[in-house]
Specification:
The complex is a heterodimer of chains A (283) and B (254). With 283 residues, chain A is an all-alpha fold. In chain A, 73% of the residues lie in helices and 1% in strands. The radius of gyration of chain B is 22 Å and the shape is globular. The chains are: A mainly alpha (283), B mainly alpha (254).
């Protein structure tokens, strides 16, 4: 029938054309921009060059790359360490309790992480709740100056990204067949061994999905270091943002973004390797 | 594992997650401009909030953008999810790939990609660039949300309707859409909150003539904590929590 073909054409093409023009095309443009020269009058000069990449091998940039990596790896490890036991316990609760607890973890997932980062200030500031508590308990005699340091930025990242670690972990652990652990125990494995050799490998896709959802945003959520951190806590995201909005060096900003995207592709490769023949567990 | 230990661990994480938000809300009622101490309850900051006409304009901007973006994205994403489910076509893998990449790619990279695109097309930054960018970054989330509901449906229903003489337009509007209403509502709500809360992408695609709430909050946050800002954030938190609640309720209904 004519109308059926028409429906098929409309349904496929609207999304196809939209994403081709507004997603695929701009991605390609970033790649192209990263090989152009910075212009004097216009933003770009149409000369192909690799200078934006060679420029990155520079102690200042390498230092920021390295620190971003360290900060985001620490964020990821802390989120995993806090989130795994949480998801593990959550997955074993009774159905009714589980839904209520799950909802409580979904709410922070939906609420603005900008507002949640702002909320951290009220806790960490000099007259904030944390200092008042520690002073009252006589654990400290002088208020701690945590706000506007890299520690505050680190706390903010973990706080903002924890739900993104918990949800994919929970999604894999929820489907886990707990009889496998019983079987391992029957066969003589102790609890720890059953956990490491059965639960962890089976939940690997969830772990990797969680790592992906935390590691990259930890490098690129520029507003968290800007709100909570001091001048020293500039990360890769701030560097890229500054190239576009302040430094006006778009080609350099593009090349840094491409490096970041390659890093992401690498992670996705690892994810797929672990997740062969399994359904996606990403949100 | 020890039951009380498990329970206290869950409680510990929830306290970490919710304490800052609760403190923020409590201090939005505090009768003092700067203090971190409690000086009695007041609704003063909320009154000021609702009388701030500049802020009202910004809030209306945000609501308009999020409403339009989530509505258009839900429409496009719904058609796209149906297409991905029903048909085999050239470029299907590419489409799946782009949707996946857009979900995992950092917002920052999307933001600069939009900025370069709009610059190349010579579109000045403002309402339209914000709207186009927001629609685009919401579409993949709509596709994934609806696709996960659609795969559980019975394809025979579509065939039965076809045998009875319905064309694809009628199958879509009379069978697919009504069956997917929970998924569609959830996708719309998710898109609305994603758009309403977005800071990163909006930073790159908004102009000075069209301010929106997240960017206004970001600029205010840098100046420090004020009870009025706490009140504004509390109102927004309430809005998103209500949306999350509705979405969960709709999705739970079978």
């Amino acid at each position: 029938m004519m109308s059926n073909r028409l429906f098929k054409i409309i349904a496929i093409n609207i999304i196809f054309i939209w994403l081709a023009v507004l997603a695929l095309l701009p991605f390609i443009m970033v790649v192209v921009a990263s090989f152009l020269q910075q212009g004097d009058e216009n933003l770009f000069n149409w000369h192909l060059t690799v200078i934006n990449y060679t420029q990155l091998i520079n102690p200042i940039f390498l230092h920021i790359f390295w620190r971003s990596l360290v900060v985001s790896v620490i964020t990821t490890i802390l989120c995993l360490a806090l989130g795994y036991p949480f998801a593990y316990i959550l997955a074993q609760l009774s159905e009714k309790l589980r839904l209520a607890c799950l909802f409580l973890i979904i709410i922070p997932f939906w609420t603005s992480s900008l507002i949640r980062s702002y909320a951290i200030i009220t806790i960490l500031k000099t007259q904030g709740l944390l200092n008042q508590l520690l002073l009252t308990l006589h654990l400290i005699h002088q208020p701690l100056h945590i706000l506007y340091t890299q520690y505050a930025s680190q706390v903010g990242l973990v706080y903002s990204l924890l739900p993104f670690m918990v949800l994919p972990l929970y999604a894999t652990l929820e489907k886990f067949d707990w009889r496998l652990v019983d079987a391992a125990r029957d066969l003589g494995a102790n609890r720890l061994r059953a956990f490491w050799q059965i639960v962890v490998p089976i939940s690997a896709p969830g772990i990797i999905a969680g790592v992906m959802l935390v590691l990259l945003p930890a490098m690129t959520l520029f507003y968290i270091p800007e709100i909570l951190g001091g001048a020293k806590s500039i990360l890769l995201g701030n560097l890229i943002k500054n190239q576009f909005l302040e430094g006006q060096n778009w080609p350099l900003g593009s090349s840094i973004s491409i490096v970041l995207t390659f890093f992401m592709a690498l992670l996705i490769g690892v994810y797929w390797k672990f997740n062969k023949n399994k359904k996606q567990v990403l949100i | 594992m020890n039951k009380s230990l498990s329970a206290s661990y869950l409680a510990f994480i929830y306290v970490i997650l919710y304490l800052p938000i609760l403190v923020l809300i409590v201090f939005s009622f505090n009768n003092s401009m700067f203090s971190g101490l409690w000086h009695g309850a007041t609704l003063k900051w909320y009154r000021e909030l609702f009388h701030d006409s500049g802020l009202q304009v910004i809030a209306i901007h945000s609501l308009i953008i999020s409403f339009l973006a989530s509505t258009v994205a839900t429409f496009i994403g719904l058609l796209g999810a149906v297409a991905l489910f029903k048909y085999q076509f050239f470029g299907k893998k590419l489409l799946n790939g782009v949707v996946f990449i857009m979900i995992v790619i950092p917002d920052l990279v999307l933001g600069i990609a939009f900025l370069i695109l709009f610059h190349a097309l010579n579109i000045s930054l403002g309402f339209w660039t914000l709207l186009l960018a927001h629609i685009t970054f919401c579409i993949p989330f709509v596709v994934v949300t609806i696709l996960s509901r659609i795969t559980g449906t019975d394809k025979n229903l579509f065939e039965a309707a076809k045998d009875l003489g319905a064309n694809d337009f009628i199958v879509f509007s009379k069978i697919i859409v009504p069956m997917l209403i929970p998924g569609i509502v959830a996708a719309w709500l998710l898109s609305f909150t994603l758009s309403f809360d977005d800071v990163v992408i909006s930073t790159f695609v908004s102009g000075p003539d069209f301010q929106i709430l997240p960017l206004y909050i970001f600029s205010q946050v840098k100046l420090g904590v004020t009870p009025e800002l706490n009140a504004l954030c509390s109102v927004i938190l309430l809005l998103t929590v209500v949306m999350a609640l509705i979405a969960q309720m709709v999705l739970k209904k079978k």
